[in-house]
Design a protein that fits this description.
TIM Barrel, binds zinc ion
């Protein structure tokens, strides 16, 4: 059975009960999508204009969803078919877990030809599950192709309200390590979905003390924690004409955290930082460019403040690439603490998120962004830029930095060096 990410996140919080979130934002964005779909009630730039045949004469209303301008720039294009150095993709999803169950999105035989072609030596499957599911993930991928796949485990959120959870979870991390887990993955479930009674009650805070033994166990056992906290800033603002991720939130209305009882982006990051401060001996991979790719000044401050943290670039080259000079300075300065990751999800699931669909073209775009100085190109293989309507510029990193970002930084963190 195939489930989408919203259902999956909701089920995680519900402990596998399969409950979906109540979603006012869904209804709101559904109406946005209806308005912008071109199906009759398009958002009219000039509502009084008469209906026009296609193609529309200049000056007539054009539904936003139909607007797909093609760049007329004549600038250099460099296809980068293979990474300059072997790659460790620190951030992939080869399956989804629910309780101790896992379902896989692809087989090693399907993944390896793309990996070989693109010079990806190792994929780190972050959503490897727990217990029996974790064992199955490790067997399925690492068993088939040793060295090409590594697996992270996940917390058992559905047990959070049970007595003794804190110690049980810490012990479970130790069992996961013995089973072969290479780290712990924490999804944005924590802070945005997980509630005291699964999907009801108050949201469980990121710095809730019940998780302290778990973070400590990871530090003691040398397991890095890959943590996704909060989301793009635009997900916390109204879905209106000012929202720079209007299309994306129209496609995924459940990604909006604007209303209901959600904390603000700043509050989530503050709770995260209080937790980081309490666990200086645990190493954190702060995913998606430190959970705040729009604000590299903030991310820099946090990297300075928490030496036990590194970041990945997964699903955020759209952000980095539209601020190429700031991003280049950032990567220069933190060249030993930036990891390559894509957030890859194999198709057909991945087709819903073009900025992270596992295929040749995805890796080629990442490589072009890191290696070339090309200007104004698409950050995802999609007709409409899926995260926001802009294009990106390459960083043109030198070989010494490329090798660290592609491989060495992750190898050191994972104990592979
Ligand atoms: Zn991810």
């Amino acid at each position: 059975m195939s489930i989408n990410r919203r259902q999956w996140l909701a089920r995680l919080a519900a402990g596998g009960a399969g409950l979906l979130l109540p979603s006012r934002s869904f209804a709101r964005a559904e109406s946005i999508r209806a308005r912008s779909s071109g199906g009759g009630a398009a958002p009219a730039l000039r509502p009084e204009a008469p209906p026009s045949p296609s193609p529309r004469p200049a000056g007539c209303p054009l539904p936003l969803a139909d607007f797909q301008p093609r760049s007329m720039l004549h600038v250099a294009e460099h296809k980068v078919l293979r990474a300059r150095f072997p790659v460790i993709d620190i951030h992939t999803h080869l399956g989804w877990s629910k309780g101790e169950e896992v379902s896989f999105l692809a087989t090693p035989a399907e993944l390896l030809p793309v990996m070989d072609g693109k010079n990806v030596r190792t994929m780190v499957n972050l959503t490897g599950g727990s217990g029996a599911g974790l064992a199955q993930s490790i067997r399925t991928f690492e068993g088939a192709a040793p060295g090409r796949f590594l697996t992270f485990t996940e917390p058992s959120w559905h047990r959070v309200a049970q007595p003794g959870y804190a110690q049980w979870q810490a012990d479970e991390i130790e069992r996961a390590k013995r089973a072969g887990a290479r780290g712990l993955k924490v999804l944005k479930t924590l802070g945005l979905f997980l509630r005291e009674n699964g999907t009801t009650g108050s949201l469980v805070k990121i710095d809730d003390p019940r998780f302290d033994p778990m973070w400590d166990a990871c530090g003691r056992l040398g397991l890095p924690v890959a943590i996704h906290v909060s989301d793009p800033e635009a997900f916390f603002t109204p879905i209106d004409r000012f929202n720079e991720r209007y299309d994306e939130l129209g496609n995924h209305p459940d990604w909006s955290f604007y209303d209901r009882d959600f904390p603000s982006n700043a509050e989530l990051l503050e709770a995260r930082n209080r937790m980081f401060a309490r666990h200086p001996n645990t190493r954190f991979i702060v995913l998606h460019v430190g959970n705040n790719a729009e604000n590299l000044g903030f991310v820099s401050e946090n990297l300075d403040r928490f030496p036990n943290t590194v970041v990945d670039i997964a699903a955020r080259i759209g952000e980095l690439g539209r601020q190429p000079r700031t991003a280049r300075r950032f990567v220069d300065k933190y060249q030993d603490r930036v990891l390559f990751g894509t957030d890859a999800v194999p198709p057909p699931d991945g087709d819903k998120y073009p900025q992270q669909v596992f295929k040749d073209e995805l890796y080629e775009i990442y490589y072009r962004f890191l290696e070339s100085e090309d200007e104004y190109f698409d950050y995802a293989p999609a007709a409409v830029p899926p995260q926001g309507r802009w294009r990106i510029y390459g960083l043109g990193l030198p070989e010494t930095i490329l090798e660290k970002v592609y491989h060495d930084n992750a190898a050191r963190l994972l104990g592979l060096a």
